[in-house]
TrEMBL record:
The lineage of its organism: Eukaryota, Metazoa, Chordata, Craniata, Vertebrata. The keyword Signal does not apply. It is found in: Chromosome, Centromere; Nucleus. Keywords: Centromere, Chromosome, Nucleus. This is Centromere protein L. Its main location: nucleus. Pfam families: CENP-L (PF13092). Belongs to the CENP-L/IML3 family. It comes from Pelusios castaneus. GO terms for cellular component: chromosome, centromeric region; nucleus. The keyword Nucleus applies.
Length: 297
């Protein structure tokens, strides 16, 4: 589904799967699904090299171990009881010009005396390029643009990994939040995507500030009703405009007010959950479906 320019940041729109997805590793893609990911923005990384991923894995392993042991020196390459692995995620980019995505995993080594005992992944994160061709053209050659980072696991590991990347490649991590406008766009685009089976209720959660505690209002909509509404609004198949998003939300507000006499337009949209994916204003997203997951990611 294409979109016209809006404030919606790249990477969270449900587009048709790009041609480069044909090169994707199905096992790695499956690993990214059904997990909640926390979003961060990352400035371009200086002197990052795809040819040094194994060396980065060893250095990051030692750094994580030292941080976990409160600053004690750790020899690179020693047995740490866990390992850090950096690898490429082929296929997860919007255009051929985008940088190849990178997967970072921290796994605890199995203590079982079996040769085939598998390590358990305790934390994972991945970088991807979602900046668009215009920004990439302005980035100097010595810099690698992987502007979106998604993390799943303990925040302590996220902080340690982020610190190592910032020190090593002179970049900066910052937490991403999702505005109500962007959440509305996601609700519309995910509603407009056809799902053949396993449809779940579309839910919009609104926050109403009040004293002494805030109040959350959950607005549940049957997915077929939401899709029917969008079909009456959308003018050009495969394209979304800001005017159509506004009209879709206004229709939902009017329906809710007619039944409950509450003006949801005065509240703040904080969460969207559909059959395709869910997103929270705190910067957390989850993609549960294997069929649509690659295209969304």
């Amino acid at each position: 589904m294409k979109k016209r320019k809006s404030s919606l940041f790249y990477g969270l729109s449900l587009l048709s799967p790009p041609p480069v997805l044909e090169n994707a590793d199905p096992q790695k893609i499956a690993f990214l699904l059904r997990k909640q990911w926390t979003l961060y923005s990352v400035t371009p990384m200086y002197k990052f090299s795809y040819g040094n991923l194994k060396a980065y894995s060893r250095l990051l392993s030692a750094f994580v171990a030292a941080e976990k042991q409160k600053g004690l020196a750790v020899e690179v390459g020693s047995d740490l009881g866990f390992k850090v692995t950096l690898s490429t995620l082929l296929g997860l980019k919007g255009t051929d010009q985008d940088q190849v995505a990178i997967l970072v995993q921290i796994a605890s080594r199995s203590q079982l005396p079996f040769e085939n005992a598998e390590d358990k992944v305790v934390w994972s994160g991945w970088f991807c390029c979602v900046s668009g061709d215009e920004l990439l053209e302005s980035v100097p050659e010595d810099f690698t643009c992987l502007s979106l980072f998604l993390a799943n696991g303990a925040e302590s590991y996220t902080a340690i990994v982020g610190t190592w990347f910032q020190k090593t490649f002179d970049c900066c991590f910052s937490r991403l939040t999702i505005s109500p406008l962007n959440l509305a766009w996601m609700a519309v685009m995910w509603t407009g995507y056809k799902v053949d089976s396993h449809m779940t209720t579309t839910e919009l959660v609104f926050s109403v500030p009040c004293t002494p505690h805030s109040l959350d209002i959950s607005y549940a909509i049957h997915p077929e009703d939401a899709k029917a509404l969008w079909d009456t609004i959308q003018k050009t198949p495969g394209e979304v405009t800001q005017e159509e998003v506004n009209l879709f939300m206004d229709c939902l507000y009017s329906h809710f007010h007619r039944h409950f006499k509450i003006h949801l337009s005065a509240a703040r949209l904080v969460k969207v959950s559909t059959s395709i994916a869910s997103a929270h204003c705190d910067g957390n997203i989850k993609v549960p479906r294997s069929q649509t997951g690659p295209g969304l990611l």
